[in-house]
Amino acid sequence: MMKRRSTPYGRDMPSSTTKDEEVEWEMRPGGMLVQKRIDKSSDVVPVPNLRLRIAFGALRYEISASSQSTFGELKKVLTAETGLQPGDQRLIFRGKERENGEYLDMCGVKDRSKVMLVEDPASIERRANEMRRKAKIQTAHRAISDVCLEVDKLAEQVSAIEKSISNGVKVPEVQITTLIEMLMRQAIKLENISAEGDASAQKSLQGKRVQKCVETLDAMKISNAKVKPVVVTTKWETFDPPPTTAKWEFFD
Length: 252
Hints:
- The chain has 252 residues and is of the alpha+beta class.
- It has helices at 71-82, 121-166, 173-191, 198-226; strands spanning 3-6, 12-15, 25-27, 33-35, 49-56, 59-66, 89-93, 96-97, 114-119.
- The strands form 3 sheets. It has a 5-stranded mixed beta sheet. A two-stranded antiparallel sheet has the order 1-2. Strands 3-4 form a two-stranded antiparallel ribbon.
- Helix 3 (173-191) runs antiparallel to helix 4 (198-226).
- The longest helix is centred in the middle third of the chain and has 46 residues, at 121-166.
């Protein structure tokens, strides 16, 4: 239905508005008459932010979240606070575990509501296994390091004996045999160390060092047997004692 409406200039202007919707006009600074704009954004109700109290064991957190957020989005926010990945979190509200797709407002979450955070039992078990694995690796590294220090000392003795034999000096065989026994003890220690990853590579390296030292000593035993002992003779010069005459004194 068309109707005419008077303007401030005294002329009628056609209008297609109904009684429920009438056009309002406004005068611009330049004298132009235009239809008044209606800010419809003022009719939009802002989404409220909620302050939530999170209980995680003995720890307490307070975070802000939109009332239209999901529990899955809330878990992402909690990751920054707790360090737990979203998949390792369980959120409980009003005695019930909430799914990731559930909305806070639809579940009755309000400002200052309390939400309980529980770590997934499978996550706890994974973390415990990881801690045990790391502790095992550290123990292996320390044990291998101790063996390495001992092998370093024994290797120096092997080099000293090898140098002596090369210079033609015969070495007591018991000295070579003792060194071999000491090296074999270190080899047994290495065998008893449970290692993996980088520690396993270090264990293998030290095992090869021990084996090389033992093989060197076995070869030196043969070379040492061929070395003739050096006999040192000393020529002594003798001197005749000077003649002595005793002068006797007589007494009456």
